[in-house]
C-alpha cells in the first residue's frame, strides 16, 4: 500500500477533482463539499476515464413524469457510454452489486504528520502548517 | 396430436365476409349509411385476401375467402388439434377508418358480430375487444360495455396506429384493462396513419409484412420508456403475429443503452429487459427461426414464460397440422401450449363453465 498526497486542501476546492497516480494506478479524487472520495479512474465497463466524465446529480421517480432530483454533483458519468456511478461509493446505479468502481480511502492530514512520515509529495513541498488531501492506494 | 396439453390457441382470426355481415349489428343510421355509401368491404391491405399468406390455400372457400364461419374453424383447426380454448382476434379494417364516429360504430358492430356469430356458437372460443383507437374515450367506453362478458379476455390494437402506444394519452385504456383483467393485445398490421417503416412507404407486400417487426420494437420501447408498463405493473401486453427471434437482440440494445441514459426515464427503476420479461408475451406463429436454431434462439430469450402458442389461423404459417413451430423443445410444450396462456389471461380462469357471463 502506498500513500500519495493529492493536493493542499486550499488548492482543491469543492466540486473539483484531481487525478493522481499511486502504486501504478490512476486514481481520481473528488471534493464533495469538503468530503473527499477517491475512485479508480477506470470505468469497469471498458476502461473510460472517470476523471473526464460529466458530473451530475441523482434523479429518481415514483411515477412517470415525476423527477426527484437530488445529490447534485455526487454522480459521475463515464465519458464513453455514460454509465453513472455514485462518487461516494463507486457503485453504479443500475447494478450496484456487480458493477462498481474500486474505491480508495481519501483523507485530510496535517502537513506535520506527512513531513515526519515516510511519505512525500513528489511535485510540491509539504508545509508543516498546511493540511493535505491524501489517498491510500 | 397436441391434445394432451389441452392447448390454448392465442391467435385466431375470424374474417368478416363483407360489410353486410356487420350491418345487423349497427343502429339504423349506420346500417343505412353502409348501404347508401356503398361501403362494401373493409379488408385491410395489411392482409390482402389474395396474398397466399393471408389464407392458407386448403382453408379457402370457393370464393377465395376463408375463416368466415365457426364450422370452418372447427373442422380446419379446433377439432383437428384438440384445441381447448381459442382466442379470436378479428382483423377487419375498422382501425383504418378516418371518421371517428364511423370507426366507433363499426368497432361496436364488429365486436357484437364476433360475440353473436362466433362466441355464442362454440364454447371453446374467447375473443379480443377490437378498440376504435381513433378515440381513446370511445375505446374505454367499448371496454366498459363488453367487459361484463368474460369471454372477452383481451383488447386489440394494431402495431402501427396513430401514436406510440406508451404515450400517456393511452393510459386510460391500460387502466381499464387492469380494472377488468384484460390483456392488451397488439397485432401486426397498420392503420396507415404513417408509412409502415420509419424510413418511408414500402413498395411491396413482402417489405411491409417484414416491417411489422420494426413496429413491434418501437411499440415495446414506447411502452417501456414512457412508463406505461411500470405504471400498470399488472398489465399484460401480448404481441400477436410479431415474430419472436428479433426480441433478444433488441432487448440487448435497449438495456445496454438504458444503462447510460437511464436518467431520462427515472421511473424505469430496474433493467428494461426484466420489465418486458415480466409483462410482455409473444405468440409463436411466426417464430422466425429455422428448426435447428430454435433452441439457441429461445435460450437468448431467457424466459420460459413469455411465449404463447398460436396457430394464426387462417394465415398460412404452417402446413397440415404442424401447428407448433419445429424445433421447440418438448419440455417447453406444457407452458407454451397452456400454462403461459392461463398466466397471461386472467379471464381464462376459472374454467369455462363459470365464465359464461353475458352482457345485458
From TrEMBL, chain A:
Gene3D superfamilies: Rieske [2Fe-2S] iron-sulphur domain. One of its GO terms (molecular function) is metal ion binding. InterPro entries: Rieske_2Fe-2S (IPR017941), Rieske_2Fe-2S_sf (IPR036922). It comes from the Bacteria. Keywords: 2Fe-2S, Iron, Iron-sulfur, Metal-binding. Residues 4-115 form the Rieske domain. The keyword Metal-binding applies. This is Rieske (2Fe-2S) protein. It comes from Siccirubricoccus deserti. The lineage of its organism: Bacteria, Pseudomonadati, Pseudomonadota, Alphaproteobacteria, Acetobacterales.
TrEMBL record, chain B:
It holds the Pfam family Amidohydro_2. One of its GO terms (molecular function) is carboxy-lyase activity. GO terms for cellular component: cytoplasm. Residues 8-345 form the Amidohydrolase-related domain. Gene3D superfamilies: Metal-dependent hydrolases. Keywords: Lyase. The keyword Lyase applies. One of its GO terms (biological process) is secondary metabolic process. InterPro entries: ACMSD, Amidohydro-rel, Metal_Hydrolase. This is Amidohydrolase. It comes from Siccirubricoccus deserti. The lineage of its organism: Bacteria, Pseudomonadati, Pseudomonadota, Alphaproteobacteria, Acetobacterales.
